[in-house]
């Protein structure tokens, strides 16, 4: 039971990443009708916002200390981050909390990138076949990936969590198990809570704001909303930017769990598209439910007891679930009728 609970917890933080990426994909597809294969690159770019902030915060000034000598008899170099020399203990705190502080950079940067991507390229493919949309956005993803590779290199770049979140939490005690039975990394629980908070914020924005209501109306009937005199194209541009922000935030906070590298976006993209299809194309709730469900199932399938019975099942479980769901319900778990049915 303890092992199962641990795998469920693993699935929740992994499912949180799937759900956030799939949520942005679904918003874009539901509003613009665009299949955006560059969305995984937005997740990756969010992660490299965290890398950039950490690199900026750890820029060092070098001072030679003649009172301390190296083994070769030369003055020893004393390296101190500029931010620490300027702000003292506050600077040390900023370096330690560089990952969560990266959110402050990621929000405007990802919003700008999303709007620029929509205005500069995506809008020319609104009425084009989905195959062309996939080709052009996949090509854009490769270009972004190679640009990041040229700038940051090909190797993963570790991004540690803040010291206060590096430890383990005795989750079992919280729910009535014996102490030490269910111990889990604190940052993974923080990521799960963060993902649920972002998801709730997106749904609240779409449900309770005038802007959100117009967007939901546009998702249902774009032409009618346009005839009412509403500049729906402008609002959909903003929606594309917000979807990019959601993907970027998912990437920022995932960096202590998975060290960023240039192809991490592609790794998550395929799985996230499967999540969207299983949840139902155009269904925001379906994307979230499917994200957490498939994340949990993938983690349970990775248990040694399961792999001994079904070797390699952890690598294909998501795709098997997708086949079963689409055979039984072509529109997905919560998809609108006719969305994917022939």
Q: Brief description of this entry?
A:
This protein has about 350 residues and is mostly helical.
Name its key features.
4 strands, single chain, mainly alpha, two-stranded antiparallel ribbon, 7% strand, 342 residues
Helices and strands, with pairings:
Elements: H1 2-32, H2 39-57, E1 60-69, E2 75-81, H3 82-87, H4 89-96, H5 98-120, H6 130-152, E3 168-170, H7 171-174, E4 183-185, H8 186-208, H9 210-220, H10 222-227, H11 232-254, H12 264-279, H13 284-301, H14 304-309, H15 313-328
Antiparallel strand pairs: 1-2, 3-4
Structure description:
It is a single chain. With 342 residues, this protein is mostly helical. The chain has one domain (2-328). The chain is built from 15 helices and four strands. The strands form two sheets. The protein has a two-stranded antiparallel ribbon with strand order 1-2. The protein has a two-stranded antiparallel ribbon with strand order 3-4. It is globular and about 75 Å long.
